Structure formats: C-alpha cells, structure tokens
C-alpha cells in the first residue's frame, strides 16, 4: 500500500488545530493555535468568541501543518475532521473548511468523532499498541470508560451521569481562586498538600453500574469551604486541592480497573485533558500493577485537543470506508 497522508482538522472547543499524519501513527506535523489566553479573562470558554477566533486562524493553522510536514495539498490522501461532539459554532468552522477543501481538491472527507480521536492519541504515542484495551477518556466535556475492541468497534462501559471530571477540576479551581483552566493548576498545587486532610465523597452507583458522578464531590468541596468561611476559619488551599483531586482520581481508578477486570483486559489507556494529571497517572499505574495490568497514556500535547489524534482516527476511518459528503453537519452531541 502506498503511503496514506491524512490532513486532520479539529475545532470543537478552544483549540484550532491541523495536522498531517502518515499511515495513522507517524505525525509529520501537529499545528495548534490555542485560545486559552483569550478565554481566561472570562473564566471559561465563551462559545461565540471561540467560533470567531477559529475563523480567523484556521487557514493559517492548516498552512502551517502542511509546511511543517513539507507537504502540499496534492500529497494529501484524505481530509479528516471532527464533526462532534463539541461547541456547534466552533465545530462548524472546521467542518465547513474541511468540506470546502475536500470539494475543491476532490479528496475523500472522513468524519471523526472527537472522543474517538482522544482514544486514538494512544496509537500515536505507543506504536506497538493494538486493540483490545480499556480506555478512560476524561476531559473537560466527557468522562467515559470504553473498551476498544478493534480500530472501528468501541463499546461504552461507563459514562458520567452529571459533570465531566475536567469540568469538576475547572470549577473547584475557580472556587479556590486559582484561575483557568483549573486542572493543571490543581495538579500543581496538590503536590504541596495532604490528600488525606479532608475525605470528600466518592460516589458509587447502585447495582453493577460503573458510571461516574462528580457533582457530589464538587458540591461537598464548595459546602465545606462555605462552612469554614462562615465560621471565620481559614484553610490550606493545597490540602483542599489534594483532597479534592484524590476523590476524583480514586473514583476514576476504581471504576477503570474494575472495567478492565470485567472485560478481561490487561491494558488500560488514558486519554483526554485529565489524562495529563500526575496523580491519576501515578495512582492508576500503581493500582493496575497490583492487578497485573499495564497503563499507557499519551504525552500532554496529545492528551489535550489536537488534530494529530483526529488524523489518526481519520486514517482508520478511511481504511474502514467512512466517508462524508457535502451534507456533513456539526453535531453538539453525538453517540460514539
Ligand atoms: O481534552 P481537553 O483538552 O478538552 C476537552 O475535550 O474538553 O480537556 C481539557 C480539560 C480541562 O477541564 C482541564 O482542566 C483538564 O482537561 N486538564 C487537567 C489537567 N490538564 C488538563 N485536569 C487535571 N489535571 C491536569 N493536569
Ligand atoms: Zn477534547
């Protein structure tokens, strides 16, 4: 088979990204324009602002991806684009751009599910990794445990019933006055704190369900701090950060390892922005080792939103015959 070069395009949230990936796993370029500085002043992503910024930057980001890869549009086999889930206005910028390119260049257009992209980042990082394995996908918008049975067959084993793990990190960081995005700031501060200072709840669903719930721990932290403030008592921010982080990480590890046990998998992969969390990586590795399992995760740049992961998922979708036509639309919510 001759080389397959996929141009991946991602614009589902606050990163405008384009990448060129050869044969699924070899990243030739990975261009990202992040809007974090723009949204920081609002304490979170403002959808309308994000869409406008994507429009301003997407052509330049695609040009950079091609030039970094030393490639031209002629070299590209197919164009892969995130069509959902995400912010619909933001997604539409990537989808419209990808459709225009596919039409003008007469190249196939491959639709990619954003969460599938996050999972596939593991294939880029670990060249020997093959399905099956269990993957925890935890980001600002999603917390899923899936079984990757093959490159095209992914079963959802658990999901969050309310907030995503990253959303809880961002919210508690705001309450502690740390800033945005909160995950990395809590991660850093927690290193100076005692994770056993306060025991915040870990929610267990009734029955066999491995679903997550993070709204309870979020509320518990907020109530705890309110009570201290009402009583005029101070608190150690690092202890709160460490204790909150431990409650979330404990739940993520317990459910994921149980999912791997139930499905008979010995490999656990992590994906999504929260997969960068140092306590999650350490605790998952330690507890998995006790069960004779191994844990893999992508480097931080491949955990947060990027287009290399979209191009990787696009490669396997391309081989599978996934194609979109000019009616492709953006979808705020869409099943995996
Ligand atoms: O995957 P991602 O870049 O975007 C979404 O698809 O949502 O994930 C962003 C989320 C944010 O909530 C951010 O706070 C969280 O990932 N995050 C972290 C860490 N780095 C990023 N959460 C905990 N610890 C980290 N080190
Ligand atoms: Zn994401």
What features would you describe in this structure?
This protein is of the alpha/beta class. Helices cover 44% and strands 18% of the residues. A five-stranded mixed beta sheet has the order 3-2-1-4-5, sandwiched between helices. The protein has a five-stranded mixed beta sheet with strand order 8-7-6-9-10, with helices on both faces. Strand 9, helix 9 (278-290) and strand 10 (294-296) form a beta-alpha-beta unit. The protein is globular, with a radius of gyration of 20 Å. 5'-O-[(R)-(carboxyoxy)(hydroxy)phosphoryl]adenosine binds next to helix 5 and helix 6. 5'-O-[(R)-(carboxyoxy)(hydroxy)phosphoryl]adenosine (KG4) binds next to helix 5 and helix 6. It comes from Candidatus Ornithomonoglobus intestinigallinarum. Belongs to the KAE1 / TsaD family. Keywords: Acyltransferase, Cytoplasm, Iron, Metal-binding, Transferase, tRNA processing. Fe cation binds at residues 114, 118, 305.
Tell me the layout of helices and strands:
Layout lengths: L4 E6 L4 E8 L3 E9 L1 H5 L6 H22 L9 E7 L3 H18 L3 E5 H12 L7 E6 L4 E6 L5 E6 L5 H11 L6 H9 L24 H16 L6 H27 L3 E5 L6 H13 L3 E3 L3 H4 L4 H12 L17
Parallel strand pairs: 1-4, 4-5, 6-9, 9-10
Antiparallel strand pairs: 1-2, 2-3, 6-7, 7-8
The structure holds 5'-O-[(R)-(carboxyoxy)(hydroxy)phosphoryl]adenosine (KG4) and zinc ion.
